[in-house]
Amino acid sequence: DYLKGTQTREKNELLSRQFGIEYNSLPLIFRMGSSVFRSKEAVAVEEGGVSGKQLEGEVVVDHCNIIEHAFWEEHPHIFSYS
């Protein structure tokens, strides 16, 4: 209950004063957490004499701000159903 109702600035001051931790200088993993998603990119394929593109991807662990529009512009496939 100690932190209930406190603002971000107050929490950062508390971290600094009590523990000597400067929040803004912490690595992103501790400030943003971890997001796990599959990256996708179009890869040229040829099957049965027909060429085309297929989406391929790999699992990515990223420490980023998923609230920002830039994240969703870079990864629009996350909410697609294909």
From TrEMBL:
Which InterPro entries does the protein's record reference?
Thg1_C_dom, tRNAHis_GuaTrfase_Thg1, tRNAHis_GuaTrfase_Thg1_sf
Q: Which GO terms describe its molecular function?
A: magnesium ion binding; tRNA guanylyltransferase activity
Q: Name one GO biological process term.
A: tRNA modification
Q: Which UniProt keywords apply?
A: Nucleotidyltransferase, Transferase
Q: Where is the Thg1 C-terminal domain?
A: 2-67
Q: Does the keyword Nucleotidyltransferase apply?
A: yes
Give one Pfam family: Thg1C
Source taxon at top rank: Eukaryota
- Family matches, as PANTHER family: TRNA(HIS) GUANYLYLTRANSFERASE, TRNA(HIS) GUANYLYLTRANSFERASE-RELATED
State what protein this is by name: tRNA(His) guanylyltransferase 1
